[in-house]
C-alpha cells in the first residue's frame, strides 16, 4: 500500500494528494496516515509546496466528509431506521442503537465532529449521524473544515520535519490506523456473536 501511494503521489503531486484524501474519506482502507506524511516528505525534498499539499489534502478530506453527510441527510433517519430493521443484523445495529447515537450526537454535536475528525477509523463515520441529526450544514462544514485542516497539517508537518527519516515514522503511523480498524472489526464480530446468542435464546424460550 505504501509503495503504491508513494508512486501515485510522485506522479500526480498535490492533485494526487487531494484525490487520495477524497478516496480515503469515502473508502477508508487508503489511510491518511500514509498519504499526508509522504506529502510532507515530498515537500522536504523540494518536490511540492507545503501549502499546496495541505490545501489539496484538506479539500479532498472535506469533500469526502460532505459526501457522507449529504448522503445521510438525503436518506434520513426514518428510512435508515426502516432499512436497519430489515437488514441491520449483519451490521449489528438496531433502531434503538440509532436512537442512542442520535441522542449522543445531539449532546456533543460540534465537539464530536471536531474531535472525531482527528481519530483514525471513525473520522469518516462521524459524518453519518451529523447528516441525519439536526446539525446545520454550516455548523458541520465549519467543524469539519477545522478538523481536516488540523489533521492534514499535522501529518504533513511530521513528514516534512522528518525529511529523509520519514520511513522511521511511516510504519508506526500505519500500524496505529490498522490497529484502530482491527479493533472496530473485532468489536463488530463480538456484537454479531452477542446478537446471535440472543436470537438463539429467544428461539429456544
From TrEMBL:
Give the UniProt keywords, A-Z: Cell membrane, Membrane, Transmembrane, Transmembrane helix
User: TM spans, by residue?
Assistant: 12-30, 50-72, 142-163, 169-190
Q: Which Pfam family is one of this chain's hits?
A: VTT_dom
* InterPro entries linked to this entry: DedA_domain, VTT_dom
Q: How does it sit in the membrane?
A: Multi-pass membrane protein
Give the location in the cell.
Cell membrane
Q: Which GO terms describe its cellular component?
A: plasma membrane
Q: Do the record's keywords include Membrane?
A: yes
Identify the residues that the record assigns to the VTT domain, covering every copy: 30-160
Q: What is its main location?
A: membrane
Q: What is this protein called?
A: Inner membrane protein YqjA
Tell me which species this is from: Stieleria varia
